[in-house]
Amino acid sequence: MKLVSSLLLSSVAAFAVVGAQAADLPSKKAAPSTYVKICDAYGAGFFYIPGTDTCLRVGGYVRAEYQYTPAKRVVTLSTSSYTDPAQVSGSLDTSGMEMRGRAELDARTETAWGTARTFIRLRLTNNDGIRVFTQANNGTYTNQGGAASQGTTLEAASVQWAGFTFGIAPNNYGFMPSIFYSSTPWAGFPNGQKQIAYTATFGGGLSATVAIEDKGEWNTAVAKTYNNTPANGYQFTANIRYDQPWGWAIVHGTVGNNSYNNSYTTAGAAPGVLAGIGASGFGALNGSSTKSEYSVGATAMFNLPMLAPGDKLWLTANYANGWIGGLLSTGGLSNISNSSGGRILGGIGRVDTNITVTGGAGSLASPFTIGNTTGWNVAAALVHNWTANWRSQAAAGYVEINPSTTTLANQWGKGRVFEVQHSLIFSPVKDLDIGLELQYVNLKNNVQNANAAFVAAGSPGLSESGWSSKLRVERNF
Prior knowledge:
This protein has 3 helices and 27 strands. By secondary structure, the protein is mostly beta strands.
């Protein structure tokens, strides 16, 4: 036993000595690898894609929005009656939801000709209630609102290099902020615009951009019942920008053509622009033509640190001739029509177009004559930070639209829209917003050569107003 015990003690001692010596040797274990390397050349959030010299930023947001808008009754003006309902308040949803998720990737690499940037932004939505536009005519009214719908939108997909931009990117005409929940009384294109653009920088804060843009992205009607137009086309846009510590100022303009086919109807009746006026069909074409159109404007942003850090004021003014998209966003145009967003207003919902009929009988011997719709707007927006966690956003604007003078009966005349909106937003932490916004819109209509029935009834529905409310919870990352 003594021998066995001695051998065991000797073995333990030997292992202890070896272990102690091994502890003194350099470790062969590899140091932890840095799998993500920060790239601070382009601001916060960028990192190097492993194995490359390209910097990448991943971002996006999740938004939940809830809306309540009182239902409105809309009627149409026709050659026989002014009371034909296009929208019955009792058949409409008054509430709705929109759930939205957006993801974006921003990749940048330095080259001898400047930064090469690739940017992509994808938006997915799920809507229901008032946020869905379904139109089912049962013979007496149009039912709007309905079951949930889902959609995917490619908001941006562009390559930028050496001053050029190719793909889908923010447009080069509208520069007012897209921070409001409701439609706005200025041009805006939140979905981006297909384009080829070049920006030149001259120094001292001065730069200029020229672009060829997809006309279809503006989503403004050329005409409704009397012509055919191309599904898309080109718009030429340019701006001159001046950036300074106090803010920036931009002069911007866009120009293009409205193409149309001048046709006559089989019944010989002249189609009109107002809903409810129509003809039995179209006959042969009587030539095609184009009319030039343009829009010009100026927009400025002023930093207001004397009020509170981060406060900003935007101002814009625009004139349009044949291109009313330069005055109102897609949603804003809906406020003066009977489409999905137009249920905020009652009375007679108008549908303005870039070119309108000014005369003619719609026959081969007397084809329609065409004139441009003109208009102008002024608008302002303000962001004020009350505290680090509370801020307000307010906007107000006036838009006037003037269709050409016509000899035809029951055609739209001047339309005047006044809009104001205000939101109060609570941000408990950075990039998390909980906000409530109220919007008020007033529309005053004028009808050219109104029929006797409409005049005898006291010309109803020419002045209407409405309001809408939205609650939004949004988390950016």
